[in-house]
Amino acid sequence: MRYYLVNDNQKQDNTNGTIWKAGRCFFYGKERELFGIEWNLLSWKFGIGLEINDENWVFHFHPIFLSLYFTIPTFRLEKITPKREITWGRDNKKAELTDERDCSIDIFDWRIWVKPWCKLHEWNNKSPWWERGFNIRLNPLDILFGEKLYKYRDISEWKDIQVPMLEGSYPAKYKVQEVSYGRKRLPFFRKKSLSTDIEIPDGIPFPGKGENSWDCGMDGLYGCGVNINYFSDAEAESKSIAKIVESVLRSRKKYGGSSAWIPPK
Questions:
Q1: What is the C-alpha separation between 253 and 255, in angstroms, rounded?
Q2: Mind listing the pLDDT tens digit for each residue in 120-161?
Q3: pTM for the full model?
Q4: What's the number of domains the chain is made of?
């Protein structure tokens, strides 16, 4: 049996801390993966559940201070994996796919989240309640004053910028927004701040995470945002460019092994 360790405990200076705080370990047989384990200390979440997706069965346990995930490749549980049938084309061709599901109960963010047998990453108000799931509010502030509300107001037009990278410059654009947030039943106690909404139409590439079959190739940054202190074109532009460069270099170092990584032509 072979195994492969991944250290996910990355510090603010982009160096790795102890792997015992956050990491993953994958075990392999002669040719294919047998199972995997992922852990994260100090997650402050309580719950238990099962996720069935196209690639893995994921069992998760959250005993308040620790998150544990056990994964088993779906093909090893093929006989008991739920299936759904689809048809397409004029000839009504048929195919059988994994019926991706989420069955869990979790307590976090001042709520109890219950998912009896929900469709994974799907929600439809016409579905029965056990497929939609539900949550119960626990936060007394939410009960008394309502949930937090965020409103965005554009205070500038889109402005074009050029983002310098090692391999060349990339076009991007930004606009300044005023963000106000507060609670529904406390209209006079709302905080306001300024931020930029950044879009990068063509994206700036960095290597894929390589955790699943669909993210082993090239990935990229297509948008982000950054807080600014006051409404100034100079500050908004400089901070937007700095945020993009910092984010891309961090991803290139994490997934490509070096911040000096350059995408292939």
A1: 6
A2: 988 888 889 999 999 888 888 888 888 888 889 999 999 999
A3: 0.63
A4: 2
